[in-house]
Fold this protein.
Amino acid sequence: MEVLNELMLFGGALFIISILASTLSPRMGMPLLLVFLIIGMLVGEDGFFGIRFENVKAAYFMGTLALAVILFDGGLRTEIHLFRVGLNPALSLATLGVVITVGICGGLASWILGLSWIHGLLLGAIVGSTDAAAVFSVLTMQGLALKSRVGATLEIESGLNDPMAVFLTIMLVEMMTKHMAFDWLMLRDFAWEMTVGSLIGIAGGRVLAYGVERLSLSPGLYPLLALFGGIFIFGLAAVLHSSGFLAVYLAGLMVGNRVSRGLYNIQRFHDGFAWLAQISLFLMLGLLVSPHQLLGYAGSALLVAVVLMFVARPVAVWLCLLPFQFSWQEKFFISWVGLRGAVPIVLAMFPWLAGVEGWNFFFNIAFFIVLISLLVQGWTVGPLARRLNLNVPTTSSRVQRVELGVPGQVGHEFVGYKLAVGSPVLRRTVGNLYLPAKVQLLCLLRDGNPVSLQPDEKFLADDHVFLLSMPSDLELLDKLLVGIQETERLSAQAFFGEFVITSRAKLSELSMVYNFPVPAEMASWSIARYIFSKYRKPVVGDRVTLGQVEFVVLAMKNQRLIKVSLKLHK
């Protein structure tokens, strides 16, 4: 009993330290997952407490469960229209891209390190896929609002590439332990994993979404139903020898885009639970490694990391994205954000569990490569996105949002705003505040005290305004109560341009105003037609140039181009 009490004390302290350390990560620019990993190493066998953790079966179970939770949360937050935008390039990267990365990395690793070809390919398979936990965490913590084509491709790729990496790793481990040769029937197994995993994820996610929408439960049970429904779907797919990782990601996607009421509460719960999974996963991986053994593999790991980051990943990305309309800046960024995280370390447990001779070589090399990736790539993602003009400016000053009701009821929300100095409603009266039809003003707080909502009462700076709203009206409320701050306006202007024009405007008419050349065959073209000639599926932030004028996509709706901004270059 005393041991259990000490374990709870130590575990609670470790998690508190990890959570508090998260406040330092944004200030230092350090990837948060790296912080958790280092904390685990500091309390491990070579750290301050000397804890030895060598239960690889428990570590594999915990790692798999944590990845399932993280992937389900990632699917919950992926909007279906972004999924359609990024699916084809992401699928190419998640399948062919992984194979190319494994082939190049494994081949060069065999040559540089003097390994056999199968050992080199196994090392390439272990480190060849990007990691969902690392990608989601870095993009979120660095506050990046990437162009939807780029962001969707990266997130969907990291959610879909695990099945290919798992398949290649297991295949190569079996070939080593059973002394088998490659058999084309192995591809049949992969097709089964992908097909059945997809069907279970989509069908199971739809059933789960239907249950969340229709069942009458206590409000606190809906997030739990979604969570354990996702875990059940993962387990069902795994029992049928298909890809549980693919199934749970697609199930999250179905729930996130089919549940219309109560979704915000579910997402908020899963956000916290996904953080718990990430902290647990990386603390456990930090405990599992023996830092004194890493130094002996530092040189080999550094060489493989250089090959992976500067040769294998870029070649795979540029080849896989050739059929798609990505600019060189977008390809360069996607090449660089091939973050390695928990997945390579979990895959490195496969040789360990199978008793492959020299398993510690694969595990320590994979761990060291994860450290290098989080240090080098994770630390530079934000600056690089801004340098390449891929971070689309956004504005939001909503201070509170609480969902009213539960699934199956009307989806109203309590929304709170703090009025800043530049708010458009300052000095206006309550009676002259024209709100959308389904929005009601509920309360006005000034200096912590409620103010009577008389028609002649004026709004002042630092007032807190609370309203009852539908989710569809939040964008209008943001514009009405927040407006655009000067620094945000200048940032958006620098990115999009100063002049906003309709997508139906004719190039010939604009050329007369802004004095830029238009080819004769395009004289009757609209801006929309010109942009669609360059991009089959344009997204906000896409740019096309005509002479000294640059058109930037400003607004899209249902795959239709609504607004375009115009930038003049000297």
In short: The first helix runs from residue 2 to 21. The mean pLDDT is 83.
